[in-house]
Amino acid sequence: MKKRSNPRLASPSAYTAERNTSTLLYVLLTIACAAFLATGFFFAARQHFAAMDLGMKNSTLRKQIEEMEGQKRQLVLAREIVRSPAEMKRIAANKGFRQRDAFAVAASMTASDKTLVERTAMVTPSAAGPKAVKAFLPTGTKPVVVTADVRTSKKNENLVAINKLR
Amino acid sequence: MSNARRKSKKVNTRQQAFNRFMLIVAVLVLWIGGIGARLVYLQVNQHDWLKDRAENQRLEVKRSKMPRGTIYDRDGRVLAMSVTVKTLYADATQIDDVAVAAKSVAKAAGLNHKEVLKSLTDGKESERKFVPLVRGISEEKAQEINKALDTIGVKKADMPKFAGLHWRDEQTRSYPHESLAAHVIGFSNNDGVGQAGIEQSQNDLLYGAVIKRVQERDRLGRVYDEQVSEKEPPKDVMLTLSSSIQYKTEAPLAKGVQTAGAKAGIAIVMDHKTGEILAMANYPTFDPNKLGSITSDNLMNRAVQSVYSPGSAFKLVTYSAALERHMFTPEQMIDKGNGTISVGGRVFKDHGSGGPVTYLKAMAQSSNVGAIKTALSVGKNDFAGTVKKLGFGRATGIELPAETRGIVRDPARWNGDSLASMAIGYEIGVSALQMATAFATIANDGVRVKPHIIKEIRQFDAKIGSTPEPESEQVVSAETARNMRKMLREVVVSGTAKRAAVDGYSIAGKTGTAWKFDEKTKKVSAAKYMSSFIGMAPAEDPKVTIAVIIDEPKIGGRDGGQVAAPIFKEIAQQILPELNIKPDILSETLVAENDGEEDYSEEPIGDVFGEPLSSDERVADAPVVPKADPKTEAALPKKVTSPEPPRAKVDAKKETPPPSKNDKVKQTVIDRPRTVAKEKPGTEVKRKT
Questions:
Q1: CA-CA 20 to 30 A from B429: which of A115, B57, B160, B246?
Q2: Could you tell me which residues are beta bridge partners of residue B548?
Q3: Residue B644 pLDDT > 50, yes or no?
Q4: Distance (Å, whole) CA B262 – CA B255
Q5: Does the beta-carbon distance from B139 to A74 stay under 8 Å?
Q6: B352 and B387 share a domain?
Q7: Does B193 fall in a domain?
């Protein structure tokens, strides 16, 4: 017959010692679990707040980027405004500069006949025979007599000079 | 006895502990039950309300527009750009004391206190959540207002720290060059939708999409998470225009239109090799920054939306058609007869005397008879074919809205005199761009390149996609184009466009002066003109084509040679060096050969339909041409008919040569003081005779 262990039959001191040990183990286990749980919660909370902080920083930076882009656009626009002919005119006027009165258009359209007189100068006879050259000269200017050859060579010289300059 | 007492006491202690325990349990059960009941109540009955409240507290949905795409010129200079501006608004439902808020806002933003108070009071009464207080202010100004409205103790994450006040980002479209190229760029409305020009035609590319931001906020309103909906950002448009050339085109045009007292003016500068429009100017113009200044009168882009009769400038088509069929060479002679021609029962007259002249001279003198005879020899169908091939009667396809096709009737519907009329630029409606393109075709050795104004589409400062090659087509032969340019060159050298001559550059082009169609009388009006000059430079190997059209010039000479040619000259003088085009001649202005023929520098048009202008119809300062002295006339060289006229035989020893007819005439004109009558508004100036 199998002998059953009966706590009542065990000695009181042994029973108490066994109970104390198991209780202590349970307590320690509970504390360990609680500590683990608390650490987990703590860690999670920390992560949570770190994430929120990161999110806020991210949001702030994103806003700053947008603001910087906006400012960049403003600056580009301001630069273009300053470089625009209309603004340059205004600035020049404020500095006391006066616009040159009229592009040549007005002069050409209204007053060209007054300032330029059509004259006919005679070209010195050359092998090709006499040649009349019409030129527009300021009033009172005596026509300069040139030969056709001279005119051509001067024209070429000047052309070469102009092209060199450019 | 004592044991029994001890036992009952022990029982009582246990009972007491049990009772206490049960009490605590009961309290806990009741407490938890109460909480449970409350939770059930909140989550079942108050679910929607609580959910909305929680989401409103935590989530915020914001919608904002991406900045509209930027328009650049060919050099990358900004022509139109959107910038973010701030709007200060009040959520009237969040403001407790309207009077205090109004006082603070008015002081901080420099507004009228009464107006702010009225806005806030009205908003409060109608429980409006958006009451705009200050609109379109810059970031700096917004910071100043934030500083002024910083209220201690207000728990609010957003600026300004003032209960019920918020900022909202909005956009405003800016055009830094103001009216420069306004008709090409157009403008967009407050909703960011293009209303004219490139802004309208490219609205789909430029439009800034609405993006949705879902922001999560903590209890202090600080954003800790944000989700932004992905949308395709708008694209930028780079135009072929050069703002510098545009300015150098607009300024002389404006000056010219003002000087001539004209109704309007158009100028186009085109690179005919690529079809790129370098400048497209209209006058009067408008400032797209000031939408209030835009009227129906100054809004129209006449260069592409308006139709006009080109007049003599259309002779380019007439002679091109004949040259293409090898019907003549520029040096061949054409007989102008007695200076009149009758076609379809209508008599067309010519300016000056008749007789045989070279085609070069016929073109230079803008001979109507010569052009009509040429057109008649070409024939109706071939002429119509050339008109079509040169791009008339259909839109050019430029990327601008509302482009006109022009008016070209089907040959089957032509009248007996239609061919003759069209040969000299009547009975046809063209746009300035069509004319510029036709001349550009001749400048480009007969290759017609489709005009375009968009160079490329960009995104994130980089070109996207490939720019297709512009359509091009050989319309007339290179030989025809070369001969045509030779004829056009003669127009500037000795014809109607002497004032278009530019120092150092050879210019070729054609003037045009046409009576306008009067809508009231349904007839062409001899009092209203369209004056034009379209030319190219340098004549031998053109690099650029420039068209100038002036609508209804009133002061001074009114024909193309007098009104449009000087504007052309001014534009060409400024832009040719900028385009790095080297001078190819010495000076055209100072050296021009006198072949002893009549002076055609002015192009009268009154005799186009056999109805010469009366002296009263001519303007005050039109040149007075007195009758030449018969004695002097006898000494003049006779008119020549050979292609290369021999020069007058003059004694070279004489220091003072006998004046020619022209010289006499001119000197007489110069010596005589001009009489310019004061022009009354609405009346024409009459010439004193």
A1: B246
A2: B267, B533
A3: no
A4: 10
A5: yes
A6: yes
A7: no
Closest Cα in chain B, distance from residue A27 (Å): 22
Nearest CA in chain A to B500: A108
* pLDDT per residue as tens digits for the range B371-429: 999 999 999 999 999 999 999 999 999 999 999 999 999 999 998 899 999 999 999 99
Distance separating alpha carbons of residues B474 and B448, to the nearest angstrom: 6
Angle at B105 between CA B102 and CA B111, to 5 degrees: 95
Residues B221 and B339 grouped into a single domain: no
Residue A150 to chain B, least CA–CA distance (Å)? 13
CB pairs A-B closer than 8 Å: 176
B294 and B383 assigned to the same domain: yes
Domain assignment of residue B199, yes or no: no
In Å, how far is B383's CA from the nearest CA of chain A? 35
Placement of tokens 């036709």 in the chain: B438
Q: Is A109 on the interface with B (CB under 8 A)?
A: yes
Residues B661 and B583 in one domain: no
B80-120 confidence digits (pLDDT tens): 999 888 889 998 888 888 888 888 888 888 888 899 999 99
Residue B499 is part of which domain span?
Answer: 243-591
Q: Is there a domain that residue B606 lies in? A: no
Q: pLDDT digit string (tens) for B487-534?
A: 999 999 989 999 999 988 999 999 999 988 877 787 778 788 899 999
pLDDT single digits (tens) A48-100? 889 888 888 988 898 899 888 888 998 999 999 998 888 888 888 888 887 66
pLDDT above 90 for B197: yes
Q: Which site among A134, A141, A146, A151 would you substitute to test the B interface, given the most B Cβ atoms closer than 10 Å to its Cβ? A: A134
- Collapsed DSSP state (helix, strand, coil) of residue B106: helix
Residues B422 and B561 in one domain: yes
Mean of all residue pLDDT scores within chain A: 68
Tell whether B13 and B72 lie within a shared domain: no
The phi, psi pair for B217, rounded to 5°, reads -120, 150
Q: Do A56 and B566 touch (CB under 8 A)?
A: no
Number of domains in chain B: 4
pLDDT value of residue B328:
92
Calpha distance A105→B256 (Å, rounded): 6
Calpha distance B427→B151 (Å, rounded) = 75
SS3 assignment, position B677: coil
CA distance B516 to B680: 22
Q: Residue B563: list chain A partners with CB under 8 A.
A: 109
CATH number at residue B211: 3.90.1310.10
Residue B191 is assigned to a structural domain of this protein: no
Give dist(CA B548, CA B193) in Å, integer.
Answer: 32
A90 touches chain B (CB under 8 A): no
Backbone angles phi, psi at B241, to 5 degrees: -65, 145
- Give the residue on A whose Cα is nearest the Cα of B71: A77
> What's this model's pTM, rounded to 2 decimal places?
0.72
Give chain A positions within 8 Å (CB) of B67. Answer: 73
Q: How confident is the model at residue B127 (pLDDT cuts 50, 70, 90)?
A: confident
Nearest 10 degrees: CA dihedral of B311, B314, B319, B325? -140
Residue B467 pLDDT exceeds 80: no
Helix (H) or strand (E) holding B237: strand B236-239
Instruction: Give the strand pairing for B165-174 and B59-65.
Output: unpaired
Whether residue B329 sits in one domain with residue B280? yes
Q: How are beta strands B340-343 and B346-349 bridged, if at all? A: antiparallel
